Amino acid sequence: MAKERHMDPAKVRAMGQSLETMSNILKVVSTVLEVQMTILKTTAFIGMFGGLALERYIAQIKPRIDELAKQTAELSQDAILSAADWEKAQLAG
């Protein structure tokens, strides 16, 4: 006997919205890191070489933050669309 599958579209949609919020937060973090990198490059130019090392470290982290923001945005859309498709299928019978 086949197991019945069930989805709570409201919970899936809420999960999608949470992922969207996380994506937006990660985008803000990425922007802040970009500003910090610019400041550190400027201070390195005027003689504070520790700032350059820190900028290089941040430059290694930023692409990962950008990728996480992209992935969470994609997961958000997938969850929201999945909930909508489930509801359509349930109405269609």
Describe the structure.
This protein is mainly alpha-helical. The protein has a domain at 35-86. It contains two helices and no strands. It has helices at residues 9-45, 49-92. The longest helix is centred in the last third of the chain and has 44 residues, at 49-92. The mean pLDDT is 88.
Features:
mainly alpha; single chain; 93 residues
Name the shape in a single word.
Answer: rod-shaped
What separation lies between the terminal Cα atoms? 20 Å
> Helix segment count?
2
Series of H and E elements: HH
Largest sheet data? none
Instruction: Specify the helix fraction band.
Output: over 70%
Low-confidence segments, ≥5 residues, pLDDT <50?
Answer: none
Alpha carbon gyration radius: 21 Å
Backbone structural class: mainly alpha
The total beta strand count reads 0
The percentage of residues in β strands lies in under 5%
What do the pLDDT scores average to?
88
In short:
The chain is 87% helix and 0% strand.
Spell out the blueprint of helices and strands:
Layout (H helix, E strand, L loop, with lengths): L8 H37 L3 H44 L1
Helix pairs in contact: 1-2
